[in-house]
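User: What would this chain look like folded?
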Amino acid sequence: MKKTFLPLALVTIILLVLGSCKKNESPVFPGPDDQASAGMMQAFFDKYAPKTETFSLDASAGGTITLKSGTKITFPANAFVKPDGSPVAGSVRVSAKDILKASDMILANKPTVTSSGEMLESFGEIIVNASRNDTALRINPAVLQRPPTVMVPVGTAMGAKREAPMWEGDTTVSYTNNGFDHENQPTSVTVQYSVSKGIDWNQIPGWGAVSGGTTVFPLDALGQWRNCDALYNDPNPKTTVLGYFGDKFNGQTGTGGQTPSMLFFKKAGTNTLINYSVMILNPAAGKEGFLSYQNSMPIGTSGTFLAMSAKNGKFYAELKDVTFGAPVSGKDFISYSFSLSEVSETQLLNLINLVNTK
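Assistant: Here's the prediction, encoded as structure tokens.
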């Protein structure tokens, strides 16, 4: 039998490749169809994400605009100035997008988590812009003592009046070389991951007034996300929560663009949504997925997970109702394994809307 010998250079390349694939260094690389499937998820979000609404307003007189959701934004007279501070008169173009419920938070990827990982109960997220003749405008500093106001149809379940602080945020991407594996043990990778966290909220001066059916809060700036949220304080001990996607995890996750595999948690009975955007690094087979911030989830918290993924040219998803228990002896985390089922585009959208009822 004739023997075939590989060239020495080729043998060297193979050994180098194998040597670079040590368990504590290798991320989950995309499969051959993962990139195309990631495009499916991007198209889904582009199609169903909340849309911006546009209005015309007399800058000199001011007035109120009403969004399809019922949100009303009231501008006082002479509320706008040009970038150089000069006044604006005549018709201006006002655009606004609000996010009031969990399904919109998912579709817009605007969860209710602070930059330090604490949970928030949302009473309305909004971004407003204004322009005249394609020139972006800003709020007139002279009206900030009595600024434009936003009234959203979101309030407290019991009808009791309360105050909620204001928060600002913007789209945020998480970059990581160091993290935790499927056993919540510290680890690292050589190829940096980048995953969209959606947004981080940071508290700013100002308060909103929350009542039974509505919340009213000030609009102090244009072109920036504003959120009227109550910080959710839970005295219970905290733990770390991991979610495993099994064979439905898309290996393109973490390479940029729309995240094709995502894990959200809706806290039961409150307008609180968390995007589990921290990826598990160097997972064992079937343990690919996401985890919470370390020791950030209160034990005893009840809610619903929505695990969703695009893979093999199909959508997969699962809703799972849970109550966070304490870790078992010897562990510093709790974990959930998801069994994602194939769903159509319509079924995926229905599952997202179903989260509103949880």
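The CA atoms of residues 120 and 232 lie 5 Å apart. If you want, I can go into more detail on any region.
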